[in-house]
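S1.2 Input.
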Amino acid sequence: MAVTDLWLVRHGESVANIAATRAEREGLERIPIDIRDADVPLSPTGREQAQALSTWWAANRDAVDVCWVSPYRRARETLAIARGDDDDHAAAIVDERLRDRELGILDLLTRRGVEHLHPEEADRRRHLGKFYHRPPGGESWADVALRLRSFLRDELPRCEGGGLIVAHDAVVMILLYLLLPLEEAELLDFAASHTVLNASVTQLTRDDESGGWRLAEFAGVGHLQVEGAPVTVHPGNPDVEPE
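S1.3 Output.
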């Protein structure tokens, strides 16, 4: 028996989310943050969102049989705060394949920074498209899909019931691409018009007859609204957003 329900959670707002959004708005070339991506913590608002996520956890914990989480600090903090003292229910497994997309030489650059400092990469991105463009030292969306295929192949058949994944916006989007499944153009159209909100919950359910997956809810934030936590819109890496 394999996993039949999946809940995909993006981490709460991080200090890097705030810095990146501000840098884009102010027209800066670089995002002013000196923390390694893996070590970026939640912002105070992100911690409030993670606390509000505990409302969702309390209502759904009995349906969750296993939790997987990105090794990055902001994701681990989100899960830990949401579960609180209830960490003895459902194993929490850290899996590096759930880490955020790596941007290589474009890391910590805004759209303006990419255009000015690496115009050749901006041209390559426009030519190859967002799905296949791999920055030097970084990953394309196709690269992330490869490691997530490995995760799904290894983990889903070993568990049964419900699974919770706490990770990043790119991971949520590419899991939808793999499981629904979507074509490249469908994924990019969907990503252009949908944002994985901080501390949101996306639900996928397996069809009993076909064995395929269907999207039951995308980026739900009802738990944030119930608890009065801010709903924040940080669209993620600049080179996966509409030109």
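S1.4 Remarks. The chain has one domain: 3-234.
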